[in-house]
């Protein structure tokens, strides 16, 4: 598998999680295609999207896993947490139940990802102001309490979608610069430079391990 | 006689003189004496006396003779005189008459001169007029050639009309010279006349050509028709009408031939009618398109033959021809469309439909080289689109049918038969597609159509399995798909996705395997204690006594002798040995890391272990070497 014509320095893996119907797939579609997808079918297992962005003058390829919100796929989707450098946790501002489930999503994420994974909370469907069920303030408070980044966005209008993805990438990049993120850890969710020979299955993971046992 | 005395005297003198003179020397005397001798024969007195009188008599007689003679002469002279007088009189008359005649003739002469001048002038004029007529007026033959014979109502055209038309044109051009030389009115008249002739002739030519343009493949007419077309090119409207007429007739002929080829076949059924093979969609569509691909270039050739003498430099002519060809082809569009659509609707097999799609694509391109645009191009484009759609729909249907039931993965966690079948279909389709034109797009669509439902089905199936089985099953499926797709180009994105998905599953599996190892070796509590540094010396903590550690080491030894025994049974079900090795290695890496920590802990004097060599004899390096055997 060749690296293709793309010239990028890093691959960042993202995961999008949240309850069914909060608009995870639409957010991804809006971000990769810059289009709103109406009547989007339920995701089965996981979907996948990529886009190359630029952070601090470096080209970065985002590999984004869009997971199914349905409970029955939880086993399948759990596999994808492990390698994620960024997790976009989505709820629907017009449905309080989706907001209420955030803490269980957060626990899952914390358990399955490494401590440096950037978690970004997104309150989707902010274009439906009239049907708002969750105030900005309480969500903001929840985010602050848990050390999450937060924004209200709309996959329909595209408002703040780009920002959420890019801000996450900036934060991850910052971690790399600070040396907090170990590029050679298998579960860092970051790969340096496209394909070292045979990039993939066996990324060098000599040291990191602690999390593997913790599950 | 008075003279007597004188005579005496004279005589005396004469005597003297005679006496004096020597008579023999005097000629006159001699003569006189001679004369005297003639009549004085006898010297007698008588004679002597008479001599005198005789002489006188003789003299008288001579005089009388003279007189008589002179009288005659006088009379003759008188006669002459009279004659001359008459003549003079006549002359006088004649002179008078001549004078009169002269007077009368002068006028006449003048008149004659005038006439002569006029005559020569007229002759010159006649020459000029003849030359003019010769140069600027058409001959009756030419007029007939131009307008056809009025009496015979003859409408046929001969090649003379072209000569005549050339002449008309030449006259028209010459008129400009005429105009420059000052004959404006005349020149304009002639020009007008010529224009009139030209128009009528072209009009006639147009009618004739319109009637005969269908016979362009008729050798006898070709020359005339093509020449006529070249002339008509000067009148774009007429030219266009002829072309239109041609198109209409050819369109009908082409449709007829097409239908014949479909239903009747060639003469005496050879080649057989195309519809005989309608049961085989591939052959049927091939035959139809091949026929078109042969027939249309012939139409194009004929069309170009029709205008072969025309000036092709004129803008729009090529466009006009192209439009004409499109127009000719319009007729066959409907029957073509109906038949191909019928085939598309009747066939359900994706492979067949894909073959048909590629056929249509190929011939669309091939025919597109001959005729650009127009209804045929649109029809072919529509058919291409339709066949592509039908193909994808059929493929989708085929995939859905195969996946309609969510099968449980088999016990060996290998891909289910349905998945294997669909991957075989995918491989087939991709092999074909990778050789077609526009393969990148085709392959993308085919892969999308098959892979998306396949991935969903696999996810569905996997979601019903326990985590380890799920990871193994997914990995096996991903591996099969990866192996299938990696044979073709343009699959990078798909492969990247499969790769990333495999990576995620390997992570899961590694984690499961590591947990299982840790549990089997009773490393769990040890690991927890090792992480926590707040308890003081390790040897004092329950569970970290050397006896307990030896228990762990015993298990580790048995692991080292049969490393495969320590693997989860599902790991052996992985189809890819690379996956298997990766999981094993990474799980052992975890084990090694813990062992290293333990080793360092035991050998750390602050942990107060006695004889650490007796407890942990192997260094982490030893263990690494043993496990990676």
What does the oligomeric state look like here? heterodimer
What percent of the residues of chain A sit in helical stretches (DSSP H or I)? 25-40%
Report low-confidence residues of chain B grouped into runs of 5 or more. none
Number of structurally distinct domains of chain A? 1
Please name the CATH architecture of chain A: 3-Layer(aba) Sandwich
Report the strand count of chain A: 7
Order of helices and strands of chain A: EHEEHEHHEHEHEH
What does this molecule look like?
The complex is a heterodimer of chains A (215) and B (629). By secondary structure, chain A is α/β, with parallel strands linked by helices. Helices cover 32% and strands 23% of the residues of chain A. Chain A is globular and about 45 Å long. Chain A starts with 9 loop residues before the first strand and ends with a helix. Chain B has five domains: 99 residues; 91 residues, no CATH class; 164 residues, no CATH class; 100 residues; 117 residues, Monooxygenase (Up-down Bundle), CATH 1.20.1280. Chain B has 21 helices and no strands. Chain B is rod-shaped. The model of chain B has no long low-confidence stretch (mean pLDDT 85). Chains A and B meet through β2, α2 and α7 of A and α14, α15, α16, α17 and α19 of B.
Chain-wise SSE layout:
The complex is a heterodimer of chains A (215) and B (629).
Chain A: E1 10-18, H1 24-33, E2 46-55, E3 58-67, H2 74-81, E4 86-92, H3 96-100, H4 102-112, E5 118-124, H5 136-146, E6 149-152, H6 161-178, E7 190-192, H7 210-214
Parallel strand pairs in A: 1-3, 1-4, 4-5, 5-6
Antiparallel strand pairs in A: 1-7, 2-3
Chain B: H1 3-20, H2 27-39, H3 45-136, H4 140-147, H5 160-180, H6 184-212, H7 219-232, H8 236-263, H9 281-306, H10 317-346, H11 350-370, H12 374-402, H13 417-433, H14 439-463, H15 467-485, H16 492-520, H17 523-531, H18 546-561, H19 577-603, H20 612-615, H21 620-627
Helix pairs in contact in B: 4-5, 5-6, 6-7, 6-8, 8-9, 8-10, 9-10, 9-11, 10-12, 11-12, 12-14, 13-14, 13-15, 14-15, 15-16, 16-19, 17-19, 19-21
